[in-house]
UniProtKB/TrEMBL annotation:
Gene source species: Catharus fuscescens (Veery)
Its job: Required for box C/D snoRNAs accumulation involved in snoRNA processing, snoRNA transport to the nucleolus and ribosome biogenesis.
Protein name: Box C/D snoRNA protein 1
Keyword entries, A-Z: Isopeptide bond, Metal-binding, Phosphoprotein, Ribosome biogenesis, Ubl conjugation, Zinc, Zinc-finger
GO molecular function, one term: zinc ion binding
Length: 267
């Protein structure tokens, strides 16, 4: 058992392949790793390990995607004038702030989750925001975040040694125990090929709106909170948008699995 290291393992998690000996250890491993226990139908499989079962799984997955897309196209809300006006208003207001906001078809997870609104009286966005802490395998969803709030204030309830919630503090201990100067906030650059994933580093002292200007957002912002002292495989572009030199210190995190899961979940 990879949880208690005492008993002989009887179960293997379909999601993360961790061995467990009992229901209690299964629950513990799910809580510790934020694992839902559901098999990832689109997990990478090398050619050498690819079998007829993998082929059948892929075929069924594509059938499920086809059914979901067809059901979404038939959904009445797709043709609702009010829905179209709301989305047009959001995209238009974002364009006025130099933000390219893109929305997904009905049926996609991010479209269903998104709660972003624009207050015409205050002339302010209230964003749906997702925070991902890859070093702790944790993520949090925030709703109604005003666009004039700084990123530092947004992160205070999570990684501030004094103001953070005690439960969150324990879960994100690697962040709260590190100097605040080591914390980096990254956001994925959209419209790039899968084999060329790049990230922009955001300024924690500036507002959410200022950080989103000039960027492409699909439904809502997803921010990755990483520590520069931990090596990782994320490539961060320079301030001028150029690729970093190979021998330079590039800060990123081992987020491939987190992000793959997010993309597949949306699909």
């Amino acid at each position: 058992c990879e949880t208690c290291s005492k008993e002989e393992a009887k179960y293997r998690c379909p999601r993360c392949m961790k061995y467990s000996c009992s229901l209690l250890c299964v629950k513990k491993h799910k809580l510790a790793l934020s694992c839902n226990g559901v098999r990832d139908k689109t997990a990478f499989v090398s050619v050498n390990e690819f079998t007829d079962l993998n082929l059948l799984s892929d075929y069924r997955f594509l059938e499920d995607v086809g059914r979901t897309a067809d059901a979404a196209a038939r959904h009445c809300i797709v043709h609702s004038p009010a829905t179209k006006r709301l989305l047009y208003c959001l995209r238009n207001k974002a364009r006025g702030c130099n933000i390219e906001l893109k929305t997904l078809p009905v049926g996609f997870t991010k479209r269903r989750e998104n709660s972003t609104t624009f207050n015409a009286v205050e002339n302010k966005f209230y964003w749906h925001l997702k925070l991902i802490f890859p070093h702790c395998h944790a993520e949090y969803t925030l709703k109604g975040v005003p666009d004039d709030k700084t990123l530092a204030d947004i992160l205070k309830p999570y990684i501030d040694p004094v103001e953070s919630d005690p439960v969150v503090y324990q879960r994100l201990k690697i962040y709260t125990a590190s100097p605040q100067s080591d914390v980096r906030i990254l956001m994925k650059i959209e419209n790039r090929s899968r084999n060329s994933v790049r990230y922009n580093e955001l300024d924690a002292s500036r507002s959410l709106l200022d950080n989103l200007k000039g960027k492409v957002i699909i439904e809502y912002p997803t921010l990755f909170v990483v520590l520069k002292t931990l090596k990782n495989d994320m490539v961060v572009l320079g301030q001028d948008g150029s690729e970093p030199a190979e021998n330079s210190d590039s800060e990123s995190s081992s987020l491939s699995s987190v992000e793959e899961g997010e993309i597949r979940d949306s699909t």
